[in-house]
Design brief:
This protein has two helices and two strands; from the N terminus they run αββα. With 70 residues, it is of the alpha+beta class. It has a two-stranded antiparallel sheet with strand order 1-2. Helix 1 (2-17) packs antiparallel against helix 2 (49-69).
């Protein structure tokens, strides 16, 4: 239980620090037989840093509950 709480707190910290993930997909723009033109399109996943703080709080709560049971 302690390890689970600690891991959840680390995930929450990462969500607080890194609030955007970007990735690229290829889209075919033109296809003329042997000639093919593609375009890289960026996509972004954004979230609020408060989500990371909430996850850290939940991890801290789990960690405290594990300490109380000992």
């Amino acid at each position: 239980m302690k390890v689970t709480g600690f891991v959840i707190m680390i995930i929450g910290l990462a969500l607080t620090i890194f609030t955007t993930i970007s990735y690229f997909t290829s889209r075919k723009v033109l296809d003329l037989g042997t000639v093919e033109i593609t375009r890289e399109e960026p996509h972004y996943l954004n979230w609020s840093p408060f989500i990371g703080l909430a996850v850290m709080t939940i991890g801290g709560f789990i960690l405290l509950q594990a300490r109380k049971k000992q």
